[in-house]
Write a structure and sequence with these properties.
4 copies of one chain form a homotetramer. The first copy, chain A, contains 5 helices and 8 strands; from the N terminus they run αβββαβαββαββα. By secondary structure, chain A is an alpha+beta fold. The mean pLDDT of chain A is 96.
Chain lengths: 202, 202, 202, 202
Amino acid sequence: MSDLLTHSIVEAGRWIDAQGWCPATGGNFSARIDNASAWVTASGRHKGELTPYDLLKVNLKGQPIDSVLKPSAETLLHTALYALDENIGAVLHTHSVASTVLSRLEASDSLLLSGYEMQKSLSGNQTHNTTISIHVFENTQDMQVLADQLKEVWTVTPLQWGFLVRGHGLYAWGRDMSEARRHLEGLEFLFACERDMMLLNR
Amino acid sequence: MSDLLTHSIVEAGRWIDAQGWCPATGGNFSARIDNASAWVTASGRHKGELTPYDLLKVNLKGQPIDSVLKPSAETLLHTALYALDENIGAVLHTHSVASTVLSRLEASDSLLLSGYEMQKSLSGNQTHNTTISIHVFENTQDMQVLADQLKEVWTVTPLQWGFLVRGHGLYAWGRDMSEARRHLEGLEFLFACERDMMLLNR
Amino acid sequence: MSDLLTHSIVEAGRWIDAQGWCPATGGNFSARIDNASAWVTASGRHKGELTPYDLLKVNLKGQPIDSVLKPSAETLLHTALYALDENIGAVLHTHSVASTVLSRLEASDSLLLSGYEMQKSLSGNQTHNTTISIHVFENTQDMQVLADQLKEVWTVTPLQWGFLVRGHGLYAWGRDMSEARRHLEGLEFLFACERDMMLLNR
Amino acid sequence: MSDLLTHSIVEAGRWIDAQGWCPATGGNFSARIDNASAWVTASGRHKGELTPYDLLKVNLKGQPIDSVLKPSAETLLHTALYALDENIGAVLHTHSVASTVLSRLEASDSLLLSGYEMQKSLSGNQTHNTTISIHVFENTQDMQVLADQLKEVWTVTPLQWGFLVRGHGLYAWGRDMSEARRHLEGLEFLFACERDMMLLNR
């Protein structure tokens, strides 16, 4: 089972790198093992060149289990998501140009998307004819602050599919790696469309 | 023969995914078998990772033949096209950023393209010096409604090469998979040019 | 020798297709054999999937030599170039979005480029600190007309590196395939920069 | 050791070419051997198709050591960097559309970047919440002039990570090839974001 999980992270890294969404060792990925632990990428690795030896186990406080590897600085956000929703099985944090730029241009704390068929790639959406909201958090280097804000927002309304961090990138998740990849790919497509609509529609 | 047809769909999927035109399990592809049936992609598969086992036979009402797989929701549009024109041998439905955005920005029901040499990639065109029209349908989740509108429009003037669904994407077709791919690639190139003309020409 | 020449065309096709510069069977490529003949791509082939069997010999009037294959419609422009300058050894005709759009937006018959280091990729240029001119011909489906205009312009001032056809694409050439590819790649880079300068510099 | 160094340059070339950052034989790359010499790419090679035979040793004045190959014209800037900072182990000079265009649009001698998480990919940066400056030199064909200006600027304040040459491209470096690649990839991502911010934020 762990082999399948670690392989799914390595594979996701190659694919995400080929899309240009994790340059310069940016990004971090994880997959839940059970109620108390997850595999997560070690700090500083190029995400297109991962091997299973670049992954470590952490508990849901983000602390390494039986490993000398240093977890990514943002591990705390991954494990916060696993703790907030037992149905989350995989988390992908990426840096694309579109997610970086749109999150800076959105002045509010919500990026609204509507009228796109691609919204249906996000689980639970059956129609283009609705408005979905992607939360935008302010960027901070203090991961505990960001994790606390995430919990606070979640308590009011659980987030779905993903959230943005301003000038930083996207966190996307799913019940397994396959769904997390679909949410990531769907959201990046929507961001690319929204960017073009902003450019062309004025 | 079926092996060649199913292979042509699998190959088209890999190529279309590499272009970025079927993200997040979006899109669906088909190839006509005979006057009464076609191979079509099953629902929910990532189109860049298709195998022959992700395809099923349907009749021209879009119903599965000897298969427990669920056809794509939009199968009805594929089979409507096969019923409307016996010369159509393959249909490719894709989601690109350019087709999504241009179809939203076009206020009328026709996207007009003129003055491009690439128009000659669309069968029957011998010159750049003409205007071609790509129909734009309103998006709806009711495929029967969309299929009926398609038939209604077709009765007045048969469509050629492809049509757009607003905020959704492109349907392109041809007498065989090779021509369907050429029409898809030609139309996407024209959309990319038209997007740039809108950006630069003001 | 012919094996090397045909291989150089097939290889160029794969590379050009990977750049997205010959979609939908567009484009045509050739390599000079001697003072009286050249290899040229047959009509209607996808340029990313060429084999040596998709090439034929033509004389410098563009007529097939010992072949039943149909040469590309634009063969006449290739052979006109070989006749105009004995130092031209290879010609690449491509369709990119940037060359299509820039050639439509340029109102005059010359696209001027200056201040780019990349101008040095075009043989004979030793500095960025000059202005180079790429001729823009009006598009026509009559290749004889276009070939005659080319000869007329050339008689006044021989063209260098390449020319544009409006709304159509680029012809680039060199003393051999390697130089033709460098001129093509350099010009496409310059067009991409010029497009961005137009977008950003206003 | 030399085998590892030359391999690291060849590999960097393939990767950089795949990103589109060294078209048309543009760009040049190097890796320090010791306090007095470095491997550098020979002039005129396509950087995506390098072999170890396309590299030569030079001393820190940019003169070939035991080689008949001609070093790249810009070797003097590589060796100037090795002489200025003993911690620099690898230098990558590239030509991207974004670096070419942004360097032309920036009127001052500094491109300022702030508010991007990706700034942390540049060694020594721990936060997005700061402003970093990338020096922009005027382009010249006289490499000695450019090397002298570099030394002059460096004496006042040592440059970090990389610098731009106007209308020309980027020099990026690091303590080894891996860090040089990370700085290159991080800077190119930041340039792509900044370009989009300029387009969208007005």
